[in-house]
Amino acid sequence: MSDQMHGLGRRYAPDPRDAAFPLRALMPEAVAMRLPEKKWWIRHVPLDQGQHGTCVGHGSEAWMLAAPLTKSDPLTPPTAIDIYRGACTVDEWADNDSGDLDFGTSVRGAFKWLQAQGRVDAYHWATRVDDCADWLAGVDAAGKSVGGTLVIGVSWYDSMFTPDREGYIRISPTARVAGGHCVCLLGWSERRGAVYGLNSWGSTWGKRGRFWMEGETLQRLLNEQGEACAATEARPA
Q1: pLDDT tens per residue across span 51-89
Q2: If 226 and its partner were Cys, which of 7, 199, 204, 221 is the partner (CB 3.0–4.6 Å)?
Q3: Could you say which architecture CATH assigns to the domain 3-9+19-233?
Q4: In sequence order, which ranges of the chain are alpha helices (DSSP H)?
């Protein structure tokens, strides 16, 4: 599949109020250790957004399908398109309020809509790889996982469309930003120093739709108007 057939769609919307909700606040003051490698279970085949700009909906859908959060009411779960269109109605722009699949939206819009639907409580943010790694693979003193999966919104370089033979996506020296993209991070490898993620370009992309990304690459992307987000699940009374 050519690069042109892969949809993007993440739009960036900074908000200084995010600093009041750091991801670190959801974890113990001191994470005892990180597991050598942790991959969170997900109960769905890789999603495919096609050429549309609905990556935020698909990344958030993957987050909801992954442990420890796997959609508390399976009878009426929101689809990736439901999340995307809902996010468009509450995000920072008016040009996408119709829910057109090509306009894109923000990660904040998705979690804001999920919160309004009563599916999550407060959503929290990270801009450091260390915080992401602790959330993905950290355990407390009793050996219990402290976190879960993450949704990231980052700039996507043209060299990142095609993973290498080992499944890594990288930023080449001559790469240019192609747009904004949103994916779900499912794990961390301490040995590799890399995050493990699920894209939304179907099972034929990468390693069954999945990829590795070195921590240094993720930190660069987080520094370049990137964000990582997770939330606590809203439990029914």
Answers
A1: 999 999 999 999 999 988 766 565 577 999 999 999 999
A2: 221
A3: Alpha-Beta Complex (3.90)
A4: 55-65, 80-90, 107-116, 129-137, 215-223
